[in-house]
Write a structure and sequence with these properties.
This protein is an alpha/beta fold and 400 residues long. The protein has 2 domains: 281 residues, Zn peptidases (Aminopeptidase, 3-Layer(aba) Sandwich); 114 residues, Alpha-Beta Plaits (2-Layer Sandwich). The protein contains 10 helices and 16 strands. Strands 1-2-4-3-5-16-6-15 form an 8-stranded mixed β-sheet, with helices on both faces. It has a 4-stranded antiparallel β-sheet with strand order 10-12-8-13, covered by helices on one side. Bound molecules: zinc ion (2 copies). The site of one zinc ion has 4 residues, from loops. One zinc ion (ZN) binds next to loops.
């Protein structure tokens, strides 16, 4: 894979430009589905490269195709995905290129992903004569829990040409610089929502015997749910039940008629997810029945688990070895965060990697989604080289 080293050198030469793009996006963050400026900068550069560009896919998403010279009509297509959205957080880094938009911040590194996307497009456009197929570059809005991937899918992002594989990456500020995580199977969790309304019978705070106290019943449910993960789920299978919101009552001397619970559940498989919901429902129904209250549980599907294919991970690992050396490539226990790259991987199997962005000479930086989040920009060239190389290697292998 001589080409990987060549691409790495070209990516390294692009590093000042990658940093400039990243800092521009960082200074002008836009939250999900409002990435107008970002999408404009992206589309301008892609057009400048002479690519076929479509805007407005999933509201503010941008899609471009890099097509190899002289390819057959049925040549393969591979997709690369870059998310563009910021978070509703007020930045406190004090960086010279800190957010100029009050209450908004690139606190997850998607500014870096967008810059890597532009770098990857640049590298691929220069390699059109070595591309035995098409690369679909997907710049996605609204990754942070707002359904950007689904919005793009609804607008036909995977239609003509249809990619047979998808690849992408997330930079990670708590993993040493340019270490690369590649693994087959689950990498990140499925994240879904469960809402519960407990309805009892309200009344006077001095006369509990005439009521069914929704707060007492719902409290019992919250505690009993804790035993689902500890006593019902297979201990080798990761799962999380978080009751993040509990609202009930209006006054000290009034027994609440109703309690509203909002929960986030995490799992690495649809089977575990369904089991969690089934047990939550059974426990809530049973406790309500015991007390004469009524349970109404609603499930809302969020993002599925991010699962890499064996073939996709094998290819990405080979390229990563070539780029940073085998000792810098590894695996992790899956993270319980959700990531809507999973929606693409479920339809076009491939691999999502994590690339380290922590300068280990410095103390461990603030976590993702914090107001002082920052990361080492030296990962940008590695990210662009990784995705460019993976796309070319994929097309070469499918083609041959
Ligand atoms: Zn995030
Ligand atoms: Zn993110």
């Amino acid at each position: 894979m001589d080409i990987v080293k060549k691409i790495q050198a070209q990516a390294q030469a692009l590093q000042p430009q990658l940093v400039a793009w990243r800092r521009d996006f960082h200074a002008h963050p836009e939250v999900g589905f409002s990435e107008m400026r970002t999408a404009g900068v992206v589309a301008d550069h892609l057009l400048h490269l002479g690519l076929e560009v479509t805007t407005g896919i999933g509201k503010t998403g941008v899609v471009a195709i890099v097509e190899g010279d002289e390819i057959a009509a049925d040549a393969p297509t591979v997709m690369l995905r870059f998310d563009m959205d910021a978070l509703p957080i007020t930045e406190e880094t004090g960086l010279p290129f800190a957010s100029q938009a009050p209450g908004m911040m690139h606190a997850c590194g998607h500014d870096g992903h967008t810059a890597i996307g532009l770098g990857t497009a640049t590298l691929l456009a220069n390699l059109r004569n070595q591309l035995p197929g098409r690369v679909k570059l997907v710049f996605q809005p609204a990754e942070e829990g707002l359904g950007g991937a689904l919005a793009m899918l609804a607008d036909g992002v995977l239609d003509a040409p249809r990619p047979s594989a998808a690849f992408g990456l997330h930079l990670w500020s708590r993993l040493p610089l340019n270490q690369i995580i590649v693994q087959a199977g689950p990498l990140m969790a499925g994240a879904d929502k469960v809402d519960l309304t407990v309805t009892g019978r309200g009344g006077h705070g001095a006369m509990p015997h005439e009521t069914v106290d929704a707060i007492v019943v719902a409290s019992e449910i919250v505690m009993a749910w804790q035993t689902i993960v500890s006593r019902n789920v297979d201990p080798t299978e990761p799962a999380v039940i978080t009751v993040g919101s509990f609202h009930a009552g209006s006054a000290a001397n009034v027994i609440a008629e109703r309690a509203e619970l909002r929960c986030s559940i995490r799992s690495l498989s649809i089977q575990t997810r369904d089991f969690l919901v089934e047990r939550m429902r059974a426990v809530a129904d049973g406790i309500c029945a015991a007390h004469g209250a009524c349970a109404d549980l609603r499930f809302t599907a969020g993002v599925p688990p991010t699962i890499n294919s064996i073939a996709g991970a094998d290819l990405m690992r080979e390229v990563a070895h070539e780029l940073v050396g085998a000792s810098q490539v590894g695996e992790i226990t899956p993270m319980m965060v959700g990531e809507d790259m999973s929606e693409f991987l479920n339809r076009a199997p491939g691999c999502y990697a994590i690339v380290g962005a922590w300068d280990t000479e410095k103390p461990l930086s603030s976590p993702h989604h914090s107001p002082t989040f920052d990361w080492d920009e030296r990962m940008l060239a590695t990210g662009a080289a990784l995705l460019t190389s993976v796309a070319i290697e994929y097309l070469n292998r499918v083609h041959n």
